[in-house]
Design goal:
Layout: E1 7-11, H1 13-18, H2 29-39, E2 44-48, H3 55-64, E3 68-70, H4 79-89, H5 93-102, H6 110-117, E4 124-127, H7 133-141, E5 146-148, H8 151-160, H9 165-185, H10 203-211, H11 214-222
Parallel strand pairs: 1-2, 2-3, 3-4, 4-5
Helix pairs in contact: 2-3, 3-6, 4-5, 7-9, 8-9
The structure holds flavin mononucleotide (FMN).
Flavin mononucleotide (FMN) binds at residues 10, 47, 49, 72, 76-77, 79, 127-130, 149-151, 154.
């Protein structure tokens, strides 16, 4: 109807599990995604909304026929955590409690999700906590093809309580300049060359990737 270029199906199980009116009957979701991929002639993107996507789920989505994965990882805006404020406004103590328990920390981080999804032959969109051009460069260096962000472009609107396109454009230009500097300093002339940029993974992310066998795959991909 709107001649869209693609459709994104969002996965928000965590949010539904926390919402007072949440629908927690997830039977048949993968079959429905498969059906949509078969039925429509447009690319289907599947995206998370703050809890990330694992390798296992990415494999199932690939088999279902999706055209790209938007990881929507932990570490950025969490629709589930947003439910805390709604529950507290409605005096729903249980949902508020569940929101605090799960909303902020449950899930797979954007970094891990990118690495776990990008081993599949599918474009990966890095979303969830992308705030600077360095985040964009790092995301592409560990396997993402595209990056997306929401909150950084909403902040000028939230601050001013009105839409100020100039501020949004300024934010976009700032991000692009940051990315250009990161590319210059890693010797990348084009964004796809960032895939070959050397990376070092440290801390908790390294420990998790090692345990899940993805650190070796990342290093292998870099050779
Ligand atoms: C105000 C707001 C509303 C959102 N609404 C939706 C939505 O309706 N469907 C959806 O899939 N994601 C929604 N998102 C999630 C974004 O698409 C994105 O996955 C998320 O914000 C992570 O990116 P960020 O950390 O850059 O904000 C929303 C995000 C924000 C901030």
């Amino acid at each position: 109807m709107i001649d869209a270029d693609a459709v994104a199906i969002h996965l928000n199980f965590l949010q539904e599990a926390i919402q007072p009116e949440g629908n927690v009957d997830a039977r048949g979701c993968l079959a429905s995604i498969t059906e949509v991929c078969k039925a429509i002639k447009k690319p289907v993107i599947v995206k998370e909304t703050g809890a990330g996507i694992s390798h296992g789920v990415a494999k199932q989505l690939h088999a279902a026929g999706v055209s790209a994965i938007d990881v929507g990882g932990l570490g950025g805006t969490s629709l589930a955590a947003a439910e805390i404020y709604r529950a507290s406004a409605e005096g729903d103590e249980l949902c508020e409690h569940l929101g605090h328990l799960f909303g902020w920390d449950w899930g797979i981080t954007t970094v891990e999700s990118i690495v776990e999804c990008s081993v599949l032959p599918l474009p990966v969109i890095a979303t969830g906590g992308i705030r600077t051009g360095i985040d964009v460069a790092k995301s592409m260096a560990i396997g993402a093809d595209i990056c997306s962000a929401a909150l950084p472009f909403l902040m000028p609107i939230i601050d001013d309580e009105k839409v100020n396109a100039d501020k949004v454009i300024a934010k976009m230009n700032e991000l692009c300049e940051e990315l250009k500097v990161a590319m210059f300093l890693t010797g990348c002339k084009a964004t796809h060359e960032l895939k070959d940029a050397e990376v070092v993974v440290t801390g908790e992310t390294r420990a998790i990737m090692e345990q899940r066998g993805f650190l070796a795959r990342l290093n292998m991909a870099k050779r």
